[in-house]
Amino acid sequence: MATINDVAKMAGVSKGTVSSVFSKKRPISTEVTERVLAVAKELSYFPNHIARSLAIKKTMIVGLKIPISREHAMSGFEVQLINGVIRECSKRGYRVLLDTLPEHDDPIHFAVDPVDGVIMLNPRTQDPRIDRYKLMQTPLVLIGRPDPMDETVCYIDNDNVKIGNQVGQYLLENGHTSILFLNASSDMTVAADRKRGLYEAFESSGVSTEHLKVMHYSRKQHRNPTHYGYVSLKNSYGNHDYTAIIADTDRVALGALQATRELGIVIPEQLSIVALSDDPVLAQETSPKLTSVELSAELLGSEAAKLLLKKIKNIGIVQQKVIDAKLILRESCKMYV
Amino acid sequence: MATINDVAKMAGVSKGTVSSVFSKKRPISTEVTERVLAVAKELSYFPNHIARSLAIKKTMIVGLKIPISREHAMSGFEVQLINGVIRECSKRGYRVLLDTLPEHDDPIHFAVDPVDGVIMLNPRTQDPRIDRYKLMQTPLVLIGRPDPMDETVCYIDNDNVKIGNQVGQYLLENGHTSILFLNASSDMTVAADRKRGLYEAFESSGVSTEHLKVMHYSRKQHRNPTHYGYVSLKNSYGNHDYTAIIADTDRVALGALQATRELGIVIPEQLSIVALSDDPVLAQETSPKLTSVELSAELLGSEAAKLLLKKIKNIGIVQQKVIDAKLILRESCKMYV
DNA sequence: CGGTTTTATTAAACCGGTTTAATGATAAAG
DNA sequence: CTTTATCATTAAACCGGTTTAATAAAACCG
C-alpha cells in the first residue's frame, strides 16, 4: 500500500501538499493538483482513514452497543431499532460500528473506540460503562433508562409502565377483567415495568387483579416467541377463564393466533388479543389484524441517533426523551359482554 | 483525555513501558505494573484504539457494505444476513462496521477504511469497488456473484437459477402447470435468475410456459411486500386460471394468504402456495404453514464472515461457495388433480 | 569472582496522516 | 519601482500508540 509519503516523493512535493490536494482544505495550484492526482493513481494510493482519524480526532462513526445472545436471533425490536439508528446515521454521513461483543472482565481492555459517540441499548443496573464513557468524554445516548437514575446522561426510552397501564385501561374499559398477560422474560426491566403499569390500571379502576394472570417468556421452555404464544395458550385455555390476552410481541400474538385456530376459538368474538408490537407491518398482516400498541422501535433508534449526533456537535447537551406508544385499534379486540 | 505520555511521565517510566503494561506483550515487573496501573486509573487513561490500529495495522473490525434505500426498511433477507455476519464475527472477537452510505462520485474520497476486511452485499455489474479493494489489498468477500465473473474474488452465493428450477420442478411434479410467480423487483439479478430457472424447469419437463405468469415487485405500485402479495392475488384471481403461486418472500406469501381468506379460497385445496423464505421462523407461523424454499440468509452471512476471517489470516485464499436452498414441505401445497 | 546469560527498561524510530508557522514567489497598491 | 498584501508550498511538530535495538542491572555458572 502506497502512503502519502510515497506520493509526495514521486510527485516531488511535500506530504502536506498531497494532504491538501486530497482534503481540499487549502488551495493548491491546478498544475500541482493534477500531478499529485496522477501519481496517486499510478501508485494506487488511497488515504488511510485510521491515520486521518488519529490526526483530526474524528471518525464519522457511531458505536452501537447491543447485547446479543450467542444462540438466539435478534428480536424484532432490536432489528427495528438498529434500522432506525442506521437510517438516521446514514442520512447524516455516519457509519455504524455494531458492537455485540461481551464485555471483557479485565479493565485493562477498555479502550477508546474508533467512534465519535456511542448508543447503548439496555444498560444494566449500575452499568460501569456509563461512568467510563463520562471519563472518556465520549458522547453517549442510552436506549432505556439508566439505573440508578442519572439526569446528566442522555437517554431515549419508552415509558413501559405507561404502556402497561394503557393496555390495561383499554381492556378494562372494554369489560375485560380476566386477562392473560404473556409478558417478556422476567429478567428484563421492561417486563417488570409493563406488569406494574397493568396492575396500576386495575387498581385505579378498582378492579381486583385476582383474574389477572402473568406469564413470562423463558428461553429454556420456549423455542421462540411464537412458540411461547402457542403453547401458553394451548396449555392454559380451558383451565383459566380469561377473556383477553396481552402478547409481549407480534410474534407471540402470532403463536397465540395459531393456537386459537387449532382450538376453534374465534377472535375477537370469543377472545380478545392485543399485541405489544415491535413490527408495525407484521401486526397488520395477521388475520385478524392485530389491535396493538406500537412500540415504535425504529423511532426509538432514529431519535437516539439524532440526539447523539447533536451531542457530538455539542457535548454539553443533556436531554432525555420518552417515546409514547400508540394504541392502534384493529380487528383482534372486542367489548366483553 | 489522558494519553500514554501523561501516564508515562507521571509514573516516571517510558511510554514503551506503559504500552507493555497494557498490552502484556513484554514482561514488566509487578512493582512497575502496579504503579503504572494506579496512575492510569488516577488519570482516567484508556488506550486509544485508533492509535493502536495505526501502529499494528489491525482493527479487529469487519466492514459490511450493504446498499439500503433511503425510504424503505431492510428486507427480511438483509436482516437475516446481517444477523449471520454479526453472529460469526462476534464469536471470533470482531466487530462489524455497517456501511450503508451511498458511494461518493469523487474518487478522491475513497479511503482505506478502518477494517481488516470487507463483506459486500449485492455487487453491481462492473462494480468498481472490487478492483479498488484489490488495489488496497483489503480482503474482500462478496455475497452474490461478481459480474463479470472473476474467479480470483471470494464470494458466497445462492444459486438462484437452481432455486427457480427446484420450485418449478416441485410444482410440475405435483401437476401444477398454471403458475403465478410473484417475483422480486425486475432490476434485481436474483429475479432474473429465478425466473430463468423456473422456465428451464418447464422446458425440461416439456411443459409449455403459456400458463406461467410472472409479475414483479415494484416500489411504486406496492406499499410493501405483503401488500404486493395481497393486491396481486386480489387483482388477478378469477382473470387467470393458476393453480399455484410462487411468492418471492414469506411476507409476500403472507399477503397472498390474507387475500385468499378474503376471497374464500381454501389453501392448499384450491390453490397451492410456495414461498421463497428469508425468515425460516415466519414461514412456520402462518396458517397454513408455508411450504417454502429456505434461502438460508443467515447461513449466507455467517459463511461469508467465516471465509473473510480466513482470508484475513491468509490473504492468499481464494474460495467460492454456493449455498444450497432446501425445499421444506409444509402445509400450503397439494397435488393438483 | 569474572564472564556470560537473562531480564526489565528505555530512547528513538515508526505507523500515515493533519496542521501550524515560516518562506519564497507573485500580485496589488502607492 | 519599492512596499505591502496575497498566495502556494514546505519543514517540522503533532495525533497516540507499538516496536526495535541498545543498555543497565540482576541472575547464573564454573
Automatic annotation (TrEMBL), chains A, B:
PANTHER family: HTH-TYPE TRANSCRIPTIONAL REGULATOR GALS, LACI-RELATED TRANSCRIPTIONAL REPRESSOR
UniProt organism field: Paenibacillus allorhizosphaerae
Domain of life: Bacteria
Classification of source organism: Bacteria, Bacillati, Bacillota, Bacilli, Bacillales
Every HTH lacI-type domain range: 2-56
Keywords: DNA-binding, Transcription, Transcription regulation
PROSITE patterns the UniProt entry points to: HTH_LACI_2
Record keyword Ribonucleoprotein present: no
Protein name according to UniProt: Ribose operon repressor
InterPro entries linked: HTH_LacI, LacI/GalR-like_sensor
The keyword Zinc-finger is annotated on this UniProt entry: no
